[in-house]
Amino acid sequence: MPLKAELHCHIEGAAAPELVIRQAEKYGKDPSAFIQNGSFVWTDFTSFLAAYDFAADLFRSEEDYARLAEHYLTSLARDGAIYSEVFTSPDHAIKAGLSPKAYTDALGEGMARAKAKTGIEGRMIVTGVRHVGVESIEAVARFAARCGHPLVTGFGVAGDERMGDFEDYVRAFEIAREAGLGITIHAGELLGWESVKGALDHIRPSRIGHGVRAIENPDLVKRIADEGVVLEICPGSNVALKVFDSFAAHPFRRLRDAGCKVTLNSDDPPYFWTSLKREYDIAAEHFGMDEKALSAVTRTAIEAAFVDKKTKAALLARLEAHKR
Ligand code: ADE
Ligand code: ZN
Questions:
Q1: Which ligand is nearest to the CA of 187?
Q2: Atom of ligand 1 nearest to the CA of 241
Q3: Positive or negative CA dihedral for 120, 125, 130, 135?
Q4: So what's the pLDDT on residue 131?
Q5: Which residues are catalytic?
Q6: Ligand 1 atom nearest 268 alpha carbon
Q7: What is the DSSP string of 182-241?
Q8: Mutational pocket test of ligand 1: of 49, 160, 233, 279, the residue with most ligand atoms within 8 Å of the beta carbon
Q9: How many Å apart are CA 72 and CA 155, to the nearest integer?
Q10: Measured in angstroms, how far is the CA atom of residue 161 from the centroid of ligand 2?
């Protein structure tokens, strides 16, 4: 089994249906509109976000969040992951009645517990949400820049790509960049190649969340390869959300063969009936990636990780030792 690393998973989106049902019972809510027969129900991106927001609202206390992070990272480690970056969302925490600081500290506590049990290294990418609005994205960037939590190492923007313009987020990303945070932004998932170009032109991220629709423009694919921008690719999510009809139609392999740096990620695993392990299995089965090629994907992820040099070197050494 290849060692794995994940750069793109929304922590609220990692809560399994059984856990969400337990949280619903705890807070006296009826989950039946969003979970049926042990599975999340949604039909398109908008209804996916509705289910996601419903579930996120059921994590309200520090212990709820600590347990969520502990469970997710522990399960990743069991599947062979040595490194995990999760997207955190202070907007969801505020909505659920928790301060961004209490929320971040709680997630950090959960990550520390998972590390103590399994050795998995975790970091947080604080994210603003496009459909919440520009002002809140800037407020989230200011929080990320000043929070000082040792595991907060990145800033990103997620949410409904069909809302807002990249120009609107330049200030938020400047605040984050100035604070030394790594930069990633969702683009080229729901919208086409122009969205990826807009993200590169305006935000200058080292990584792009998804970015797969770049495949529609060969010049842009070449630019991504030439500039060494890393793509956080989530094949299971893309096929579930019908960004592509099938794994056979998914551009992972074409992007990789064109020289783009590609990584494998689960996005919101139970919503898309996936896991990081399944993403690696999909790549083996549908993209012709053998063990050596999958190990190279893990190396790309660690090299692109928003983590200090010493930890990165230790992770790369672990990867090398595993190969021998
Ligand atoms: N938030 C959670 N999952 C997301 C996705 N796949 N795209 C954009 N925003 C998200
Ligand atoms: Zn995402």
A1: 1
A2: 6
A3: positive
A4: 92
A5: 189
A6: 3
A7: EEEEEESSSS-HHHHHHHHHHH--SEEEE-GGGGG-HHHHHHHHHHTPEEEE-HHHHHHT
A8: 49
A9: 20
A10: 11
pLDDT per residue as tens digits for the range 176-222: 999 999 999 999 999 999 999 999 999 999 999 999 999 999 999 99
Rounded to an integer, what is the distance from CA 125 to the centroid of its chain?
Answer: 8
> Which atom, in ligand 1's list, is nearest to the CA of 234?
6
Name which residue sits closest to atom 7 of ligand 1, judged by CA. Answer: 159
Query: CA 279, CA 276: separation in Å to the nearest integer?
Result: 5
Using left for φ > 0, alpha for ψ between -120 and 50, and beta otherwise, residue 91 falls in: alpha
Mean pLDDT of 81-94: 97
Distance 238 CA to ligand 1 centre (A): 11
- Compute the C-alpha angle 90/280/246, nearest 5°: 90
Torsion angle of alpha carbons 101, 102, 104, 109, nearest 10°?
140
Tell me, rounded to whole angstroms, the distance of Cα 195 from its chain centroid.
18
Which residue, among 209, 207, 195, has the nearest Cα to 238 in the 3D structure? 209
Centre of ligand 1 to C-alpha 322, Å, is 32
Q: With bands split at pLDDT 50, 70 and 90, how would you rate the model's confidence at 252?
A: very high
Q: What's the one-letter identity of residue 221? A: V
Task: Give the whole-angstrom CA distance, residue 266 versus residue 2.
Answer: 16
Average pLDDT, the chain: 97
Whole-number Å distance between alpha carbons of 36 and 51: 11
pLDDT of 265 strictly over 80: yes
